[in-house]
Amino acid sequence: MSTPSTAIGIAAAVRSGSMSAVDAVEQSLERIGASDGDIGAFLTVTASSARDEAAAIDAAVASGSDPGPLAGVPIAIKDNMCTRGIPTTCASRMLDGWLPPYDATVISRLRTAGAVIVGKTNLDEFAMGSSTENSAFGVTKNPHDPTRVPGGSSGGSAAAVAAGFVPVSLGSDTGGSIRQPAGLCGVVGVKPTYGAVSRLGLVAFASSLDQIGPFAGNVADAAVVLEAIAGHDPGDSTSIPEPFGPLGAAVPRGVEGMRVGRITDLPAGADPDVTERFEAAFDALADAGADIVDVEVPAFTYGLTAYYLIAPAEASSNLARYDGVRYGHRVAAPDTDAMYVATRTDGFGAEVKRRILLGTYALSAGYYDAYYGKAQRVRRLIADDFARAYTHADVLLTPTAPTVAFEIGAKSDDPLAMYLCDTYTIPSNLAGHPAMSVPFGTGADGLPVGVQVLAPAVGEATMFAVGAALERAMGAQR
Length: 478
Description:
Blueprint: H1 7-16, H2 21-39, E1 42-45, H3 47-62, E2 74-78, H4 105-112, E3 116-121, H5 155-162, E4 168-173, H6 179-185, E5 188-191, E6 211-216, H7 219-229, E7 259-263, H8 272-287, E8 291-295, H9 303-318, H10 336-347, H11 350-363, H12 368-389, E9 395-399, H13 415-419, H14 426-431, E10 435-442, E11 448-454, H15 460-474
Parallel strand pairs: 2-3, 2-4, 7-8, 7-9
Antiparallel strand pairs: 1-3, 4-6, 5-6, 5-10, 9-11, 10-11
């Protein structure tokens, strides 16, 4: 019997007793050990605890218990989610060696579902970046071409799935940090509705935008992971109180009669190879029975500028807690003020400093209304424009990223060029809506191209149905 490669397949085999969780985890650890030196997806590999957890799952199966829908499935976690007793660094010197005293809610829910955490993955420092080049602990490489970036900020989690180290992983998405690397690495990446997944234990970047979601090799696996981690959490004041509906049934549903929106005023800038695949996605959905309708989202084009005022402003507030006093990195100095300056100068990388300075400026007296206040009004316009568009369409389609994966170092010295990588992903964060990237063929140099499916708030079921239809059209089941 061949070894299952999908999360659903592994869990079914473990629950039936035809495969042990220990074997599933050992195979994952072997792949990581053999190849991650060339990729750099992981910052920490938790081999010992993973083996213990897998053995406990096998014991549960042997006793007749059901370990859960992710029984024995190896999973990787972006290193900005708290894991009790396991280093959580946010890829920053500021938290190097920090051991959280508690698990994030998503970690507890994964373990309840039977998943086994095999390690913590690399990211842009404090999730600020689009290439995973901003990590204090090294660059992650794209498994399809190690001279190129995997995207960011959740590049380690995307690369871990693309390289076959794990079938599924978790990332966080503030402006595209799940979807953009999913597109560049050729995997499925999902940003749920804001509030659908608890943020308790997620180290904050921009609290009104951050959301945790899954990476997977296929849409069905992404659905089962999202079902496991979603749902109300009283420990998160932004958590949606209503139950999160099942998604698995949506995967085979199809798109017959569904209205798929083509945004006629979508910002230009995508490369021709990306545009070609994007247009082919509309054709594929039309062939599957969907109706393609034209819609307008006029404020979409302002998403980038609004985001780069709102997100840095929230970051400047959230990152004020890293002062060298209570935990984390500290540089000795003759007095408290000097210690603050020395610690933050030494502990934060260049991109984090850039965003703190931008955010502090936008919130300062005399500039708050002109910058931060105006950006929040633009955010409201974007949400209103989406609401109008969804009266005509059930979902919208865009490219995930303007280009395929670019070469390492190509945009490091040009922050604006790097920020433009998130042109198509940012608006859904500002609106709080769900969106997902689905692999849809290849572009330049044979590199993956992702198509993004956007849906209204709590519209994940429809979104997954469309994503699965695109996957079937490509024959993309891994």
